[in-house]
Amino acid sequence: MALRKVYSEIKGMKVKELPNYVKPMLSLDYVKKSVLRGLDNYNAKYIQTSSIDPLFHVCFGGMIFSYLVALPEERRHLEHQQHANDHH
Q1: pLDDT in tens for each of the 88 residues of the chain?
Q2: I need a labelling partner for 41 at 20 to 30 A (CA). Which of 20, 52, 55, 75 fits?
């Protein structure tokens, strides 16, 4: 949703106007406010309503994180196995 808003605001601009529009969004203060606004929205949507969705978010996030952490090692094992099969 936020990307649609940014896109709709940008599509009418000229290229020279773009840096003046984007530069304030890249400031540390703007990023902090955006993160806090996102956390407040998450709190209002899931935590205050006693929803079980945050538990699902943690479970699925943990699975994705563990998969991404193990992926390089698994790829090394696969490459080693393929290399061993090529030489036998």
Answers
A1: 578 988 888 888 888 999 998 898 889 999 999 999 999 999 999 999 999 999 999 999 999 999 999 999 999 999 999 999 988 7
A2: 20
4 residue type, one letter: R
The residue assigned the tokens 């530069």 is: 23
Instruction: Please give the structure tokens belonging to residue 39.
Output: 């956390």
Which tens digits make up the pLDDT trace of 33-57? 999 999 999 999 999 999 999 999 9
Query: What is the per-residue DSSP string for 29-80?
Result: HHHHHHHHHHHHHHIIIIITTT-SHHHHHHHHHHHHHHHHHHHHHHHHHHHH
Radius of gyration (Cα) for the chain, nearest Å? Answer: 22
> How far is Cα 6 from Cα 32, in angstroms, rounded to an integer?
18
The tokens describing 50, both together, are 């006693």
Joined together, the tokens standing for residue 65 give 């994180």
Report the C-alpha gap between 29 and 6 in whole angstroms.
18
